[in-house]
Every structure is written in structure tokens, then in C-alpha cells.
Predict the 3D structure of the following.
Amino acid sequence: MATDVEVPALGESITEGTLAQWLKKPGEAVAADEPIASLETDKVSVEVPSPVAGVLTEQLAQEGDNVAVGAVIARIDQNATAGAVPATTSAPAQAAAAATTNPPGAGETPALREDAEVALASPDGPPLDASITTLSPAVRRAVLEYHVDPTSIRGTGKDGRLTKDDVLAAAQGKSQPGAPAQAGVQAPEAKIAAPETKAPPPGPRPSPGDRREERVKMSRLRQTIAKRLKDAQNTAAMLTTFNDVDMSAVIDARGRYKDLFEKKHGIRLGFMGFFVKACALAAKDVPSVNASLEGDEIVYHDYLDVSVAVSAPKGLVVPVVRNADRMSFAEVEKSIAEYGKKAKEGTLTVDEMSGGTFTISNGGVFGSLLSTPIINPPQSAVLGMHRIEERPVVKDGQIVARPMMYLALSYDHRIIDGREAVTFLVRVKEAIEDPTRLLIDL
């Protein structure tokens, strides 16, 4: 009995996704709720679980395909035996099965046969197995271009899969003088003093000085980021105001209490907690910074949902710390740490990144000295933090070195006046330079 695997609901307003990767191959056993594929949406990556335990018998979509919510992408047979692939399996699945159960050329479709013949035509290497058709497009193209045997290369990708870098490294080693012969290629006999010179095969050959280009389709997440940021530039009347802040007081507070804080709460005391609380305090004096524009109406919020910009492997994401104005330092730090971990693992949900009334972006962790951050619509402002470095400043008539940080507030001038933006940034500066204000709400 075969059970269809459908694309699950991906979140509000998301109707389709891109099949990023198959996590299971045809013929492999799967457990109930075990992920068999990974989908990429406009906002997050989502794993597709198997609804039942059984054997994956069919893959009805290929990596890179756009699939709609509710579409059937695979079938699970609850009665099949692991390793068995039925005759009805899709073309990509048939190629994978043929590579492990049949000799090259056996049971291939005409399209796959054509690809295999291209590989078999390599004049200076061993015959290539038809399993080349199961490689990713970029890796497959590199294998055919540089005439290397994929079965003789050790993959460094996930689950031992080949990457393009693996193929290029193998091709470079093959082209270097004195490199060992590929498996299956007989070396010339030592008694032959001058073997016949063989013309190199046509096509580019890799070398340390080669100039290469690679075209990679933008991920859905990157396309969405690009569209939203460009829309923000085209729609909002953006302006950025700057200030600098002496971080001495915060650094001193962290130095004194970080061990006790971590012991009690199980989380490190960072800088972000101070800035979130400082922004919450400043937003009480300047509520327009925490507002949004909807049509011809300004929506003011009596809560602060902070979107914290986090760098993920596939692009920038902004999970939301909700009701940050009512949270303690420990709750803020725990939320941010948890979101950072999820961002790296690609497990953030759509709900965790929806909403937000104000954004904080910390480019300082990457060494940024100064920037003009872009507003995250429909929000009206974003605070940019930067790296801390000692700079000479004048204190009480003396030139002294202080750990300084530049702050940048980009805001929508349609609803926030310059006076309000500057006032907000000054309030944040005052709270950071004198953290006692955060305790007495001043």
C-alpha cells in the first residue's frame, strides 16, 4: 500500500516552495515523521516528514523544482522491502537505482543514456558509471567538463556527497605532473623510453591560474530579501542619523556580573540585552519609532516586538523577540541565543519571523565600523550597532581612550521627524552610558 507524501502548509500567505534537497533515496526505509526532503520557502527552510513508516518508492519532483502546498512529491510503500524500487519510480529515482543495481547502460531512459554516453566518451580516464546522472547539476557539469571519475573521488559534502570543489580538486591533482594514475587506467610500461605523446582532450583544463565563473540561481530566501529591501528603498523616505556611545559602563557591568548571571540563568550576559532594554525605554518617549504606516494611517504599538537581525547560512533572517519591553535581561538573552541557534540550523518557523515593530541589527560582530541599515517594512525604524574599538575622546578636558561604538538609526521620514529620531538615539546613548537608568525607568 502506497501513501502519498504531500507538501505541508508552509505558513500564512506562502503557497509554494522549492525542493532544496532529497534527504532520502528511493529504496531507503523511512520511519514515521522522519524527514525525507527539505523545502525552501520565501522565509524559512522546512523539512517534509514521512506520514508513515515504510520504504520510499517514488520521487515525483526533482531538486530545484517549485512545488505547491498540497502537491504530492513522493510515495511511501508500507509493505515494500528496503532496497526495492518499483518499475513506476520516476526518472531520477530510476537513475539512482540503476547506478547501484545495473551495469552502465542497462535499463536507462534515452535522456539518461545520452548523458552517460557523454561521460563514457572521456578519452583519458576510465569509463564513467551512469551514476553521474544522480549528481547535482553543478557537480555533474564539473565531472563532464574535467573528465574525472566520480567514483574515485571521496566526497566531503553531507553524507559523503560530492561537491564541485571535490571534483575541481581531483581534476587539479590529475593534471599535475607525477600524479598517480586514475583507478582503471593502466600506466605505461617502464621499458618504453619514449611513449607516444597523446594529445590532451578538448575542453578547458584546470590550473592554479584559471579564471572561473559559476552561475547559481538565487534561493527563494535571497530573492525575497532582495525584493523587500528594494521595496523599502523605493517606498520609504529613509534617512539615517548617527551617534556614538561610550561602552565603558556596560563592559564594566558585564565584567562584574557575567559569571553570576550565567550561573543563575544558564546563559551568557551579552550586549544585546542592554540595547533591547534601552530601545524599549527610548520608545516610551518617542513612540513613532515603534510605529508603522498602513495606508494613510499610523499604527502605534503599546508593546515592543524587536526583530533581531541574525545571519544564517542562506541569508539574513529576522526572528522576533515579542514583548521585549516586558522581558528581563535573562529572557531577552535566552530568546536571542535560541533564535541564533535555530537560524544556523535552518529550523526557524514562519511564525517566529512574522511581525516585529522595530529592528536591531548588529553588524559589529562581523567587524563593521559604520553602516546605514535598511528599514524592515512595515516598520518605521532600525537601529544599527557596530564594533567596539578604543578611540580618543575628551573627558573632563582630558584626552582619554574609551571603548566607543557608532550607532546608526535609519528611519522613515514620512512618520518620524528628525528631532524625534535624534531624541530616540540620544535616549539609547544615555541608557547605555548609564545603565542605572534602565533600572529606575529614567
Q: What stands out?
A: The chain has three domains: 2-89, 118-175, 220-440. DSSP finds ten helices and 18 strands in the chain. Residues 139 and 165 are 8 Å apart (CA to CA).
